[in-house]
Amino acid sequence: MNPEALRTLVLEDQATDAELAVAALAEGGLRCAPILATGRAAFEAAFAAGRFDLVLADYSLPGYTGLDALAFVRRTDPLVPFILVSGALGEERAVEALRAGATDYILKHGLARLAPAVRRALGERRERERHLATSRALEQSQERLRALSRRLLEVQEAERRSLARDLHDDIGQALTALKIQLESLGRSGAAAAPAQVQACIETTQHALERVRQLSLNLRPLQLDDLGLVAALRSHVDAQAKLGGLTPHFDADAVPEELAPEVESACFRIAQEAITNVLRHAGARNLSVSVQGGAGTLVLSVRDDGRGFDLDAARRRAASGASVGLLSMEERTALEGGKLELRSAPREGTTLLATFPLEGGSIP
Ligand SMILES: Nc1ncnc2c1ncn2[C@@H]1O[C@H](COP(=O)(O)OP(=O)(O)OP(=O)(O)O)[C@@H](O)[C@H]1O
Ligand SMILES: [Mg+2]
């Protein structure tokens, strides 16, 4: 491995001392590209202007100290390795420097320690950066989860409102009408007119139809009645017709007995992905396939539409602007599966949801 030269800012008023430090690094196998600053103005200007892998600072200079330089650096950069290189540094000052955020300190007559100290500092820096990246990723996923919960509650509320409205306006009205018709029938005794009975039957039929539609929206009954493959096929056909698309459906080696949770997740994800194709893709073809085998079930929904910028859509979703992509990801993850989206502007979109069939999870 031949790493690039370390961009190194050296604060030192004695040119020979700076050269000795650079030579000590080279001897220890570390190539560096030094920029020398001999006082405050030069040091602060150079640090503000450039990005450095390493700062070496003498402890005392005329009108400026290594600690001043350290405070300046740490105001904007908590991570860059900062090593004090000093002729003599008492224990107290050394402790003070470490507390203030110095990475290490080296005595000028012990420069052999410099290269190992820099190596350790660079390793620690990489470690801290990895750690920061992990916590940032964790924070982002928590933020997404919060956005999703917020949206889910909103969606749940909206569904309840619409269900309440349908129950009240439609079924409530029908049952009230039925009650009045039946009361009137009761008053007219046994000789009820056939027309009145027919009206009762029609009102009942209307109410039945509404109840069927409502429950269909709440849970896809086709899943229980027909199984996943037939339910998907009929959904794909119906939606493609609605959106003027050519449907392509393909199922292969899908086990008869699937866990109901996997079945629901697969169907709901297909529903959302197909709705997205209809709403956003401007596509001509809609291809859906579901494949079993090797302990997994793979759902694929593909369109040849305009495609989109995945990262931008994810950012919008994380800020709460939409819920579809997130809920598809969450549903797959809940079943131990993995969701993959491939899309780029003008290149269509492919969604692949892979579920494990024998418990466990997809890496
Ligand atoms: N098949 C697709 N083709 C083109 N763009 C898509 C497709 N699927 C998703 N998108 C883009 O990704 C965005 C996010 O999708 P998502 O399903 O999260 O939100 P939405 O459909 O806008 O709203 P909802 O929360 O109601 O689902 C969409 O607004 C759209 O811009
Ligand atoms: Mg959507």
Characterization of the model:
The chain is 57% helix and 19% strand. With 363 residues, the chain is α/β, with parallel strands linked by helices. The protein folds into three domains: 6-132, Response regulator (Rossmann fold), CATH 3.40.50; 140-218; 226-356, 2-Layer Sandwich (Heat Shock Protein 90), CATH 3.30.565.10. The strands form three sheets. The chain has a five-stranded parallel sheet with strand order 2-1-3-6-7, with helices on both faces. Strand 9 and strand 10 (296-303) form a beta hairpin. Helix 5 packs antiparallel against helix 6 (194-218), helix 8 packs parallel to helix 9 (260-281) and helix 9 runs antiparallel to helix 11. The longest helix is centred in the middle third of the chain and has 74 residues, at 114-187. Magnesium ion binds next to helix 9. The site of magnesium ion (MG) has 4 residues, from helix 9.
Helix-strand blueprint:
Blueprint: E1 6-11, H1 15-27, E2 32-37, H2 40-49, E3 54-58, E4 60-61, E5 64-65, H3 66-76, E6 82-86, H4 91-99, E7 104-107, H5 114-187, H6 194-218, H7 221-226, H8 228-243, E8 246-252, H9 260-281, E9 285-293, E10 296-303, H10 310-318, H11 324-334, E11 338-343, E12 349-356
Parallel strand pairs: 1-2, 1-3, 3-6, 6-7, 8-9
Antiparallel strand pairs: 4-5, 9-10, 10-12, 11-12
Helix pairs in contact: 5-6, 8-9, 9-11
Adenosine-5'-triphosphate (ATP) binds next to helix 9, helix 10 and helix 11.
